[in-house]
Write a structure and sequence with these properties.
The chain is α+β, with helices and mostly antiparallel strands and 332 residues long. The chain is built from 10 helices and 10 strands.
Length: 332
Amino acid sequence: MPPVVSYGRWALTLKTKKNQQCHHRMLRLLSHFAACNNNSPGQPSPPGPPPIQVSFTESAGRGVFATRRIGAGDLIHTAKPLVSHPSLSLLNKVCYFCLRKLPTAQSSDALTVPLCSDQCREHSKAFLEVEKRADWSPYNEYCRIQGLKYPLLVKRLACMIISGTTSSDTLDVLQPAYLSPEMISKMEEEFCLLRHALVNAGIKNEMMAFLTKEWYSGVLARIRINAFRIELVGGSYEDLLLSASASVEAEAAVGNAVYMLPSFYNHDCDPNVHIIWIENVDARLKALRDIEAGEELRICYIDVSMNHDARQELLFEGFGFRCNCLRCMSGD
């Protein structure tokens, strides 16, 4: 059973008093969000304090901490994505909004995309009205040939902004990856393809004022280290919540998504928290072992079964840091 590979981000060390004040306000908001979203679907919130809060770590910027004891297998909280998009190869096999697998393949084109429910139709209505006005075939084909997946999230986000369902600074609170001049230069063609598609669709310039090269590269820099690869797992919801296994049976990735709260979890090669997707893009974070109050909750950004050198190389190339967790320090 291949493990679910989870991708996250490395926290930013804040440098100025002004930034610290701003981020402290943001952390209070996130902690409140966690308190309101820690219960299982359809279940009342448990009594007592919320199970987690976002705070500052000693060396890794922001992190997520337990405010009370959490038992192995407990569902800590759920999270809906800020933005998501299905894999190009599965456009006719999963819901265009929630990424739920469809019982049978459906047609998918510029005017008709598969949606699994009236709820998904309602939630996607606004940005779909923008998407359907444009011809995305050149943009999608470019992403397909180049093997790119994150620009699809930027396209979806741009259409959401134009439709008024979100703001252009939605992802600004997340830590960006470093982009070299060469990497930014390579984004030129995809940026032009995105903008041309919207211009040719008749989108007014004032509605695309945010869509600059700087905005495009800035959003991609955040998506690169905050996007999660969505893999839907087998088994029932109840069985998975009772299991403390770090590896779950997973099928092929159905898409990618960016979340707010899950992006604040730091990395550990021997994590105490695992993120899973049961039937759609809604993320569920559950404890892999008992967690005590005050303990930091951490997930693994990569395949936990990789050896020490492979993990270090992948974490440095993909996330820009060398891991100093207990497992890595021991040489395992």
